[in-house]
Amino acid sequence: MLTDTPYDEIQIKDVAERAELALGTLYRYFPSKEQLFSHALLEWSSRFEEAVRRPSGDSDPERLRTTLARAARAFERSPNFFQLITVLEVSRDPEVVRSFATFSNSFSAALSDSLCESDPDDRDAVVEVLVALFGSLMRGWWLGRISMREVHDRTDSAIALLYRGADEA
């Protein structure tokens, strides 16, 4: 349902009808729309996580580019999931916070897994910078401010800058 309809247009009663569940049953397991869709995000991300976690390339920068390009393509195929992230990342509901942390940690781990050659002391910083940049670029894409080509180009430029700077240090 979320792949076809933006999050803000979906009503819980429609989800219950489509799943052939009583509305009360759905609310028993998911007391809020945010909780329901935080679990939907985890389910969706577990499927694309397999592809994202198979880094290919001969160097850390190449593996990072591949990993982030795969993630961008997944969101490009399912843009409503990126909208969902923008909703869930600011939720204060403890269950949603836990689910979103699981999603975020998994994405960060996928990037970290790409770093086979980097100094272990630098990995967290590289991942943190790239997660922040990627989130910002994808938000710009989702809002229609930049193209997906720009997302890829800017990500590639940032990775090159990070590693060129590390090589000079």
Features:
Tetracycline Repressor, domain 2; about 170 residues; mainly alpha
State the oligomer. single chain
Biggest sheet descriptor = none
Terminal-residue CA separation: 49 Å
What's the mean pLDDT score? 89
- The fold-level CATH name is Tetracycline Repressor, domain 2
Contiguous helical run count: 8
Tell me, briefly, the overall form. elongated
Number of domains: 1
Order of helices and strands: HHHHHHHH
- SS class: mainly alpha
CATH class: Mainly Alpha
CATH superfamily: Tetracycline Repressor, domain 2
Structural write-up:
The chain is an all-alpha fold. It has a single domain (7-168), classed as Tetracycline Repressor, domain 2, CATH 1.10.357.10. 75% of the residues lie in helices and 0% in strands. The protein contains eight helices and no strands. Helix 3 (33-52) packs across helix 5 (79-88), helix 3 (33-52) runs parallel beside helix 6 and helix 4 crosses helix 5 (79-88). The protein is elongated, with a radius of gyration of 18 Å. The chain starts with 11 loop residues before the first helix and ends with a helix.
Short description:
The protein has 169 residues and is mostly helical. Helix content is 75%, strand content 0%.
